[in-house]
Design a protein that fits this description.
The protein contains nine helices and eight strands. By secondary structure, it is of the alpha/beta class. Strands 2-6-1-7-8 form a five-stranded parallel β-sheet. Strands 3-4-5 form a three-stranded antiparallel β-sheet, covered by helices on one side. A hairpin with an 8-residue loop joins strand 3 and strand 4. The protein is globular, with a radius of gyration of 17 Å. The relative contact order is 0.22. It binds cytidine-5'-diphosphate.
C-alpha cells in the first residue's frame, strides 16, 4: 500500500498526535514510537529520586544513566505500551500533572535531548516506524519519508485532554489544563535546541474541526 517507511508526526501538546500515530502504525503494521514518553520518564525519574528539576547537570546525568524500557502492553487498560524504569511500571504515572508540570523544563536541557535523540534516531532509522514528538521531522529523523505537523486550537486541545483525563477517572479542571497546555507550548516553541515547529517539508494539518477518523483518512490518503 505504501512505500513510506519512516513517518514523523509532530505538533503541540494534546493535538492528537499520539492517537493518530498509534492508529496509523496499527494500520500499516509499523512500530509506534512516542518520544514524549521518554521525556516524561526522565522527568518522573528526577521527581522520584528527588533530583531538583532545575538542576540541569543532575537531570542530564540521570538522562544518560536511566534505562527506559518501552514494551508491548501487558495490561488491557487503554495503554499503547508499557513504560518501565528499574522494574517499576510507570505507564500512567508519567501522564500525571506533576510530571506534566516539569517535563518541558527537562526537555529543554540540551544534554537531555542529546541522550534521548540518539536513542530515538537509532530506533527510527530501522524503518517501518511512526515516530511522534516535537522535533522528529526537524531534528531526529529529518529524512523521514512523510512528515505531518498536527495542530489544533489551544481550546480544542485542552478540551480533548480534559475528556481524556475524565475518561481515566482523574479529576480535571478545564481552565487549568488550558493554562498548562499554553505554558508547555510556549516553553517547547521557544527553547534553543530543537524547538517545536513544523519542518519546512511537513504537511500541516489543523484538526480543530476534524475528528480522529477524518485525520487518519486524510493521512492515509497522503500515503497512497
Ligand atoms: O501528549 P502531549 O502532547 O501532551 O505530550 P508529549 O508528546 O508526551 O510530550 C511531553 C513533553 O515532552 C512536551 O511538552 C515536550 O516538552 C517534550 N517533548 C520534546 O521536547 N520532544 C519530543 N520529541 C517529544 C516530547
Amino acid at each position: 500500500m505504501t512505500k513510506q517507511s519512516i513517518i514523523a508526526i509532530d505538533g503541540p501538546a494534546a493535538s492528537g498526535k499520539s492517537t493518530l500515530a498509534f492508529l496509523l502504525a496499527k494500520k500499516l503494521g509499523y512500530l509506534y514510537f512516542d518520544t514524549g514518553l521518554m521525556y516524561r520518564a526522565i522527568t518522573w525519574q528526577a521527581l522520584h529520586k528527588e533530583v531538583d528539576v532545575s538542576n540541569e547537570s543532575e537531570v542530564t546525568k540521570l538522562a544518560n544513566e536511566t534505562v527506559i524500557e518501552v514494551l508491548p502492553s501487558s495490561v488491557e487498560d487503554g495503554r499503547p505500551c508499557d513504560v518501565i524504569i528499574e522494574e517499576q511500571d510507570i505507564t500512567w504515572e508519567i501522564k500525571k500533572p506533576v510530571v506534566e508540570g516539569s517535563v518541558s523544563v527537562v526537555a529543554a536541557y540540551p544534554g537531555v535531548r542529546a541522550a534521548l535523540t540518539a536513542q530515538q534516531r537509532r530506533i527510527g532509522l530501522r524503518g517501518n516506524v511512526v515516530m511522534v514528538g516535537r522535533d522528529i521531522g526537524t531534528v531526529v529523523l529529518p529524512d523521514a519519508d512523510l512528515k505531518i505537523y498536527l495542530d489544533a486550537s489551544a481550546e480544542e486541545r485542552a478540551r480533548r485532554r480534559f475528556s481524556e483525563m475524565q475518561s481515566r477517572g482523574e479529576s480535571a479542571d478545564y481552565a487549568q489544563i488550558l493554562a498548562k497546555v499554553i505554558e508547555r507550548d510556549q516553553i517547547d516553541s521557544n527553547r534553543e535546541v530543537a524547538p517545536l515547529k513544523p519542518a519546512s517539508d511537513a504537511v500541516v494539518i489543523n484538526s480543530s474541526e476534524m475528528d480522529i477518523d477524518a485525520v487518519l483518512n486524510f493521512v492515509l490518503g497522503l500515503l497512497k
